[in-house]
Specification:
This protein has 13 helices and 32 strands. By secondary structure, the protein is of the alpha+beta class. A hairpin with a 3-residue loop joins β2 and β3. The longest helix has 28 residues. The chain has a 32-stranded mixed sheet that branches.
């Protein structure tokens, strides 16, 4: 027994001595260079690209298990420009040997020096990185094998602990070239340093680089990762600076990222100029605006929460030039999104952000015909549920100034409803209710509008540069239409309404002079410039709409000296009109500063032509037919009419 024990101890000592000898002698006597060609051949076979290593390859075993490579080159696949896809000047990694036996990974050094990565997309859209690695069949098999693993197996690490003393990537270069688009972007001076790497402590990161020559840096901490990673709540605190324009801070906490992912944080983006950013990146700015001085200041601050199936924002502020937008909202169920939002806009001039006039015309010529607009059954417009509220201060759009507005919009199953809309403008108010059914084919819409006490003069001046009408507008209309484009809507519109103007005037025309007896009218008397207006106490225009044609019946105007009735129609598509205005009552306003003789034969007026250039002329034929029914009056008036009848041709 003693002899057996003696030989066992001797054998154990020999094994230990042999292991120690191997640790110290293997790195010195094993000819690493002899295996260099075999390693290069294996890598080349696995990647499908040439692979080469320099002659300064070193291996160490004790006290660190180490590997050092120099001048590593992975060639580009056939058909691409650069000689190498990946290259590195030096690579070194050193791991403590004995802790590995107990599952503890302690890395002293991980250094990658001067890596060069060249990414290229060919003219047919194929990237050089897509031709690296296993075949498609091997990839599918690997994917299926991975799918068969349990979540616990995929998420867990086969180690007890991890510590990295020094991790760095220095002097890196990454270049991307797209032969399809001509895009060529380059990252230089890439330097990444990670400190305090472990599973139980926050990791400190410093990343600095230059993107197309412009500085970019990210500094901060993240962690602890936990073991397994994601088992602990992880704090994140990063500060990003980019291109001498962007200054952004992200702070938050990430909980259970491997299972019920939740990230709660704050984001602060200091105001910057998107136009300057696009110029710095050498991109054409995608938006052309009427005012070239807009989109020069954008900033954001807000709190957010992100989970696997929801995103929410709170206490969010967006600065847009001189405007401030505050909002909060939530989106859940991304496949069939449920959206709830509340937005407040202090003021904005939207006209400054619209495309220039020439670009608007070009867009109209190249736009897809509205008849081709269809909402697919699986479109987000059909599946989403929306509840949005918008309040604003002063907003200018189409040169119309809205002092305040509030809208509530609901949407479900492709049907969107303006539940309520209120606009304060021009000393009055406009309220509206609307509904659009995008699920219908064609799209169907209806709207009801109620207007109270809007000052028409200023409204028309701003909206259409028209100064021919004054007064206080009250109106109600109910319309329905189908289609998407303005032309489709106008052609299909149906409904009715009434425009009521009080205490106003038609400026630039004296209807009394045009409609009075033939004597004064045919003498061609000119009204003084200051009297070229027709005051009225009430102008009522009831109308109905059918297939784009507005029919006016018994529109009436009451003024101090004349009562008018109008009938006719207007084509909203062609923007033309044909309306006849007839006098009903003649009165005198002598004693009120008017000494003109306004009695006698009343002459109707016909208004024809386009909306932008209407033509007004007297209806003498109809007036004569009326006079024939009263011979006594006809004798009195026709004598004067005969002398002036030749002047009529100047009016046509």
């Amino acid at each position: 027994m003693k002899t057996l024990l003696k030989w066992f101890i001797v054998l154990l000592v020999l094994v230990v001595l042999g292991a120690v000898a191997a640790i110290f002698l293997v790195p010195k006597f094993v000819p690493v260079s002899a295996y260099k060609s075999k390693i290069e051949k294996i890598v080349a076979e696995k990647t499908g690209c040439s692979f080469a290593m320099g002659n300064k390859t070193k291996i160490s075993v004790f006290p660190w298990l180490g590997l050092q490579l120099a001048d590593v080159h992975l060639g580009n696949p056939e058909g691409f420009t650069a000689e190498n896809m990946v290259a590195a000047k030096n690579f070194e990694v050193r791991v403590k040997l004995f802790p590995l036996l107990s599952g503890n990974v302690e890395i002293d050094t991980f250094v990658l020096d001067s890596p060069r990565i060249f990414l290229e997309k060919s003219k047919n859209g194929l990237g050089n990185w897509q031709k690296i690695g296993p075949t498609a069949r091997e990839g599918v098999a690997s994917s299926k094998k991975s799918e068969n693993k349990s979540d616990a197996e995929q998420n867990s690490l086969p180690i007890s602990s991890l510590e990295v003393e020094h991790f760095s990537i220095t002097n890196g270069v990454v270049q991307f070239v797209d032969k399809q688009t001509g895009l060529n972007k380059k990252v230089t001076d890439f330097n990444l340093s990670l400190a305090n790497i472990s599973l139980d402590e926050p990791i400190k990161m410093i990343l600095k680089m230059r993107f197309d020559g412009m500085p970019l840096s990210i500094e901060g901490t993240a962690g602890p990762l936990g073991n397994p990673p994601g088992s602990k709540e992880m704090a994140v605190d990063f500060h990003v600076k980019a291109f001498d324009l962007i200054d952004c801070t992200l702070k938050g906490r990430l909980a259970d990222p491997m299972n019920a992912f939740t990230f709660l944080g704050t984001l602060h983006l200091a105001p910057f100029s998107p136009k300057k950013l696009a110029a710095a990146l050498k991109f054409d700015f995608p938006v052309q605006t009427t005012d070239p001085n807009v989109l020069e200041k954008v900033g954001f601050t807000g709190e957010f929460k992100i989970t696997e199936n929801a995103v929410s924002l709170a206490k969010s502020r967006l600065e847009l030039d001189e405007s401030l937008i505050t909002f909060e909202g939530r989106v859940t169920e991304f496949n069939k999104p449920i959206i709830k939002a509340k937005i407040n806009l202090d003021s904005i001039d939207l006209d400054r952000y619209l495309p220039p006039a020439a670009e608007k015309n070009q867009e109209a010529k190249t736009s897809v015909p509205a008849a081709e607009f269809k909402v697919a059954k699986n479109s987000v417009l059909r599946t989403m549920v929306l509840n949005a509220e918008l309040t604003t201060g002063v907003v200018k759009v189409a040169n119309i100034v809205i002092d305040a507005a509030k809208l509530v919009v609901l949407g479900k199953s492709g049907v969107f409803t303006v539940e309520s809309a209120s606009f304060d403008l021009y000393e009055g108010n406009l309220k509206a209710f609307g509904r659009t059914d995008l699920a219908a084919s064609p799209v169907k819409s209806r709207i009801e509008v109620d207007v109270q006490d809007i000052q028409v003069k200023k409204l028309l001046q701003d909206a259409a540069k028209v100064t021919k009408l004054e007064g206080v507008l009250k109106s109600h209309l109910a319309l329905k239409a189908s289609g998407v484009s303005a032309d489709e809507v106008l052609r299909s519109v149906q409904g009715q309404g009434r425009l009521l103007f009080n205490d106003g005037a038609i400026v630039g025309i004296d209807l009394a002079a045009m409609l009075q007896n033939a004597t004064s009218f045919l003498q061609g008397k000119q009204q003084p410039a200051q009297k070229a207006r027709t005051d009225f106490s009430e102008l009522s225009v009831p109308f109905s709409l059918s297939n784009g044609i507005a029919t006016i019946t018994e529109a009436q105007m009451q003024s101090p000296f004349v009562r008018l009735e109008a009938n006719g129609n207007a084509n909203l598509v062609a923007q033309t009109m044909n309306v006849i205005v007839e006098p009903k009552i003649v009165a005198t306003i002598k004693g009120q500063g008017d000494n003109e003789d306004r009695t006698g034969l009343m002459v109707p007026v016909r208004i024809t032509g386009s909306f932008s250039d209407p033509k007004i002329r007297p209806e003498v034929t109809k007036s004569l037919q009326k006079a024939l029914s009263n011979p006594a009056q006809m004798k009195k008036d026709v004598r004067s009419l005969e002398k002036k009848i030749m002047n009529l041709k100047n009016l046509f």
